[in-house]
Design brief:
With 368 residues, this protein is mainly α. It is built from 13 helices and four strands. 49% of the residues lie in helices and 5% in strands.
Length: 368
């Protein structure tokens, strides 16, 4: 009896071993096929707003399909039409002698080899596209990674600041583009970068100390070490009222790039940058030189929405309204809203022409 049970156990074990060996290849095939399906699903992760496949930069962007290009063409055309209508509504498309009514060529980069023209708006993907323009200028990625020199300084060695006539001639036979961003989001980004995280002894660090001395209620308090957001906004509003030259990091895009005086082919938005920059790369036929970039995407773990809510909650409705009046052309030209920034629901943005006069951005000090 014992011998029979012993033989039965041996037979069972042999059966399980044989079954396991037989099923192992099938399991491997299943895992591989499942992974392939999962990879395909991941590669078609759709963005809620635009319904275009998300870009996976690490694996190299694929070319846009003709259908995607057509949809993006429609998007760009609508943006350009809006800019044209608002420019005409406020008379910003007429030539004049102030900074709003003549082309400001100062911050444009013109790549003649690839026929690409870009106005470098600080705090609107400027780091990413400065990198791309340096690649197109012939700098190697390894050099750019190791170089201690500021990217803008490197770029200006290859792209001298153009004259007004050079700029207007270049945009006629080039892809000319501008990247815009919600004015209040761009302003907050500039504040956090240049005030909260100012480099020691830099221009902006010294400016922060001046703001604290003038606008801090408790003159003996050094907490925080940088200007608070309301203190910074009070400083900016005073600069606007006194018609002082403004730092280029918070100069309105309408003044900085004069989109009513320079004919752009593409208005890209920070909020849809993944798709918009793929469109630029495809349209300019530079995919063999550059790829979509997203550098300096943010500091810290908080979301952009959370940061906007946190910082703008510190401002009064009066401060919000004055900031809106200053950035009004940017809001209207590029289709952004300000309503959600008012705490008092009865507050409504003005429908009149902005009362602030054209501003002149400060030329760069020492690069940071």
């Amino acid at each position: 009896m014992k011998t029979t049970r012993y033989h039965c156990r041996i037979v069972k074990r042999c059966f399980f071993v044989f079954a396991t060996i037989s099923l192992l290849p099938l399991g491997v095939v299943y895992l591989v096929s499942t992974d392939q399906v999962y990879s395909k699903l991941k590669s078609y992760d759709y963005d809620n707003e635009t319904q275009y496949p998300a870009v996976t930069v690490e694996h190299g962007p694929r070319s846009l399909s003709s259908n995607e290009m057509e949809k993006l063409e429609v998007r760009m055309q609508k943006r350009l039409e809006r800019v044209g209508e608002v420019c005409s509504q406020y008379g910003l498309d007429r030539r004049g002698n102030d900074s709003l009514h003549r082309p400001n060529s100062w911050e444009f980069l013109i790549n003649k080899q690839y026929r690409l023209v870009w106005c470098n708006v600080f705090k609107a993907a400027s780091t990413s596209w400065m990198y791309n323009f340096n690649l197109m200028a012939g700098y190697k990625p390894q050099f750019l990674k190791k170089s201690k020199e500021v990217p803008l300084v490197l770029a200006r060695k290859k792209y001298p600041r153009p004259s007004e006539s050079e700029l207007l001639t270049s945009v006629n036979d080039s892809v000319s583009f501008l990247i815009v961003r919600h004015p209040f989001e761009r302003l907050l980004s500039a504040y956090r970068d240049k005030m909260q995280n100012a480099l020691p002894n830099s221009f902006h660090h010294k400016l922060g100390n001046i703001i604290i001395q003038k606008y801090r209620t408790n003159k003996f308090s050094r907490v925080p070490r940088w200007p608070t957001f309301p203190e910074f906004v009070n400083y900016l509003i005073d600069q606007i009222h006194n018609h002082r030259e403004l730092d280029m990091h918070w100069t309105p895009i309408t003044n900085f790039c004069t989109p009513c005086q320079v004919r752009f082919n593409v208005i890209a938005k920070f909020e849809t940058l993944e798709e918009d920059q793929r469109y630029i790369i495809e349209k300019a036929n530079i995919g063999h030189v550059v790829s979509p970039q997203w550098k300096n995407s943010g500091k810290g773990k908080k979301s952009t929405v959370a940061l906007l809510e946190e910082f703008y909650a510190e401002l009064s409705d009066k401060q919000v309204r004055e900031l809106y009046e200053f950035f009004k052309y940017d809001f209207e030209l590029f289709g952004y809203s300000v309503k959600e920034f008012y705490r008092n629901s009865s507050e409504k943005p003005s429908t009149s022409t902005p009362t602030t006069k054209p501003v002149t951005p400060l030329k760069p000090h020492s690069p940071e």
